[in-house]
Amino acid sequence: MSETEASGSAPLEQNISEEPAKAFNDEPGWKKVDPTANKGPGKLSASILPSILNLYNCQATAADFEVYAPDATFEDPLMCAKGVKQIKSAFYSLPKVFTEGKMGDYLVQEDETSPGNGEIRIDNIQHYRVWGQAIDLKSLIKLSVKDGKVIRHEDLWDKRTLWNKHTVRVPLVGRAAETWRRFNMLVTHTLMGFGRDPRPKE
């Protein structure tokens, strides 16, 4: 599991705002999954969480992307990826941009509506370093799961809703934001060789 689990660091609620945790606990059906507990992740997140941690810790391998459905989507404030190859490009680009990248403390919540189906939420802090400058980013990762595979992956920076034509008052502004994220993704996808897996290190 992650460095956070191994080190036994303080619970996430002590490091970031308690508001997200309270909101989760108030929602019927949601189950808190304590990654520091001996029981480990819940059923829904058990096979998915290790790969997601590898992606954010800049340790992604081709096998980690097997948790996604072929037509899965990934979206954050900078990019909107469609399909596994574009998702690969998005995460393979992290070590190219940042000299250091890892997920710090995190709290996992899951709502399994039926076996292999539901949603996983990861309330977390991401740590990056670029040009010698440290960047700490509060984030809420939302994973929609169907038949045991991630079909939608959203990374909400500062836990803010992504701008699109449905979430802003002026649909034209939302559509422009969507177009900008798609353009960024296509540029990144091209630069990263269209999702080509890196050669294994010898």
Describe the structure.
This protein has 202 residues and is α+β, with helices and mostly antiparallel strands. The protein has a single domain, classed as Nuclear Transport Factor 2, Chain: A (Roll), CATH 3.10.450.50. 27% of the residues lie in helices and 33% in strands. The protein contains six helices and seven strands, in the order H-H-E-H-E-E-H-H-E-E-E-E-H. It has helices spanning 3-7, 19-25, 49-56, 84-92, 94-97, 171-191, and strands at residues 31-33, 68-75, 80-82, 100-114, 117-130, 133-146, 149-157. Strand 6 (133-146) and strand 7 (149-157) form a beta hairpin. The longest helix has 21 residues, at 171-191. The two termini are 23 Å apart. Residues 1-26 and 35-39 have low confidence and may be disordered. This is SnoaL-like domain-containing protein. Residues 1-17 have a biased composition (Polar residues). Residues 1-38 are annotated as: Disordered. InterPro entries: NTF2-like_dom_sf.
What attributes characterize this protein structure?
single chain, 202 residues, alpha+beta, Nuclear Transport Factor 2, Chain: A, 7 strands, disordered N terminus, SnoaL-like domain-containing protein, NTF2-like_dom_sf
**Nearest-integer average pLDDT:** 85
Strand content: 25-35%
Uncertain residue segments: 1-26, 35-39
CATH class: Alpha Beta
Largest sheet: 7 strands, mixed
> Percentage of helical residues?
25-40%
- The tally of structural domains comes to 1
Give me the strand/helix succession.
HHEHEEHHEEEEH
- How many E strands? 7
Report the CATH topology name. Nuclear Transport Factor 2, Chain: A
Structural class: alpha+beta
Specify the CATH architecture. Answer: Roll
General form: globular
Distance between the termini: 23 Å
Figure out the total of helices: 6
| Radius of gyration (Å) | 17 Å
Strand order in the sheet with the most strands: 1-4-5-6-7-2-3
